[in-house]
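Help: read this over?
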Amino acid sequence: MRSVLCRAVLSLAWITAACQTPRVASTVAVTAPAPAMPAEAPRTAPEVVPDARSAVLRATHCFEVEVTAVAHDPDHAEGHELTLRVVRVFKGSPGEGVGATFEVPVQTAVPGGAIEGPWSGIGARVGARAYVFVSASSTTVRGLFAEPSFLEVMPAALASHDVTLAFASEARPFDEALAEARLHAARLGPLFADYLWARHGARALVDAHVRDALFALLLEPAVAADARARMALLADNLADEPDATAEYLDAYTVTLFELLALPEASALHDEIVARRLPTLARAPRTPAEAFRTRPAAWVRARHTLARWRGRGDVTALRAWIRASD
């Protein structure tokens, strides 16, 4: 039952940043290594978690690069060659250090078009900056991009805040990290959402405090839309796990009803009504079970369904929510 829901969620058009990281290969030439400069990763750099669905955790190296030159690649009609300079190192230590420059070949669908492939997260213009997340056993720039097992490139404007917050969270107790995230809710992005749930999601299945804190962030009105969408997907994926506990499923059901009442989450409402709640909120489970410790939320859920004016049919949900009357 739950696996059907998960497949449906993953196919939705509004999920624009799915957690897929295909194996890639790239040819890189180091051209002018800079003199040794401090390039140590911050002490709060997260440990490497090879199978994590978070670029921050999965990567062995994370650093910021800047485009210093763009040249046409004579071997490819639609190709360019970008010269990149390492600006800052956040995780791992490329042997050449901060200031090293190297070239990467990139492809475009048409001459002068947008970059395709793993380097699509950086523009083909001098001065463009991006964050590079790469997993490889090498400690040199040349080796990192020769045969990486994982490579993701994101525009610096989209990644910088999430990376800073994720690394800062590593040095803080869970409650402090969540409080800081809520202070910056409007600037959160999918990158931080991936990190947060990859780091703490498993605990949410068994720890009520962690679970409630993560769901509270999901329900925070100020959270950016793309971050909320990603957290909703990750919460749903957890509910599909074989070891998902009844406590987690109950809390998740209540959270979905709360999201349905949240105007700031309107982009998720049709999906919640059409696919998510009908899978969870139905017999043999009863509202008394799902809302047993949250009577006020039960009242709000009934009120929300009574006033529903969206496109989805909530007839079955209304019948379920009144099952214990």
In short: The chain has two domains: 29-156, 159-321.
